Amino acid sequence: MMRDRPTPSIEVNDITVSYSNGVAAVRNATFELGPSTICALVGINGSGKSTLFKTIMGFLTPSAGSVRIAGLPVKAALRQGLVAYVPQSEEVDWNFPVLVEDVVMMGRYGHMNVLRIPAKADRAAVDQALDRVGMSEYRTRQIGELSGGQKKRVFLARALAQGSEIVLLDEPFTGVDVKTESAIIDLLRAMRDEGRLMFVSTHNLGSVPDFCDQVVLFNRTVLAYGPTATTFTEANLAQAFGGLLRHVRLSGPDLHDDADQRRVTVLTDDERPLVLYGERDQEKHVNPDRSETP
Amino acid sequence: MTWSAPAWLWSWFIDPLAHGFMQRGLVVAVLVGAVCALLSCYLVLKGWALMGDAVSHAVLPGIVIAHVIQIPLAIGAFAAGLGCAIATGYIKSNSRIKEDAVMGIVFSGLFALGLVLFVKVETDQHLNHILFGNMLGVQWPDVLEAALIAVPAIVIVIAKRRDLLLYCFDPTHARAIGLPVGTLHFGLLTLLALTIVASLKAVGIILVIAMLIAPGAIGYLLTKRFDAMLAIAAAAAIGSSVVGTILSFHIDGATGPTIVVVQSALFVLAVMIKRGGRSANA
Contacts of residue A94 in chain B, CB cutoff 8 Å? Predict the structure, then answer.
């Protein structure tokens, strides 16, 4: 479906965001993301990730610097429905009397008249979105009756139905099994290939090299950002999180009975670990869940 | 003389309505019941049951001050109710105290202020009537006043029910798609304050709290669809208003409390139906 919409981008320009008590949650953060991107926002709990998300969505106003979305000020971009948000599971009250199809239809509200009476196009968009995430047969279930992965897919369907070019996802893999995780990753990749910009907040380090082409390492400010291969390195992660990650290294002599100097490094924040393998400073990401051992 | 059951029921319902005070009471009970029921769905879902409690208590000083400065009581009541809700929000976001504690302080403080003022100021109002209503004492102008507030409030809630639901369910998404979240928030509080003002003469500021919770809780228990929840809540409240008003005539009881007792009985019934259904499934 061709859309006559602006090219997705997020420009964060030297922003500082402070709480009402004067403490700065984010200081002098700068980065820029373009279309056809899946970018991970990586940081420990309390690093200001959610403050950054709230600022990008206009809930908080930076005390210095600016955020522009698709070249527009945040408020104008939101009014055009350019940004979709997939909430953390903990933020949602799953006992609400709403059905799966009701939640997905909420993605269409920005397209409807003031009474929110769905038109044919709205129903079609909901059908299509449900179909795409494989949740069509659950459409009349109350949302609390779903599994963790199904719940995530419903909210992804809402983002699809909204038709946004920019999607913010908050911890999408919490409470999701490995099979569903890879289904969600496949969907995110397909959305990227359609030109969308996906910005994913996560502390699940292991899955980052799996599906993110860009990374923003964040702790109160941007510590590093760029392509995953060159940015998501042990050195940068050590700088970002210091002693806050579990760090296990098996060096060459422990692994092999030969002169092979390649070593294994495991970094984890109690989620899926990040595993690096190779000679010093030439280590590559490996994916422990998919058993692609070199 | 043998009466068939329907004829007996019919005259049980219709005979009391020969009295003008019963007609007025019934109209006002149905109006108040309906508007409270619709709002109660949102209060129950948003976890704002205590907010209804707070706003209604806070109305008292507004009534007394309005009497002193000679403006319509409804305006004073509305201003005080909304002021309480806004003060609660302000204190909550500017202190470390949790919302329920803030509400507890603000509304009991305002209620106490209202009582102090009420005793100090000579009024023609009966405290009992403000607290518990005087459903069978309402005059047609009172009915008209209640209707002028309740009918537009009902229309607004029904027309904007989806936006209000989205605001309660997922305010982040509501904001992300450009809905005026602040307007929805204060709109809901304004509707709440208006509803309490409309209910004042009929059920009073204490009993309105029950009417702002029970119907929504009944609907919440019995369905998983929001539109059905609104419909069940409205049906339960209107049914309770009719039955309660007529019943109070026959048992010569106070009308407002009888309606609340019928609503509470329906709530207990809904809980039992739900429990019965669950153990049958298990």
Answer: none
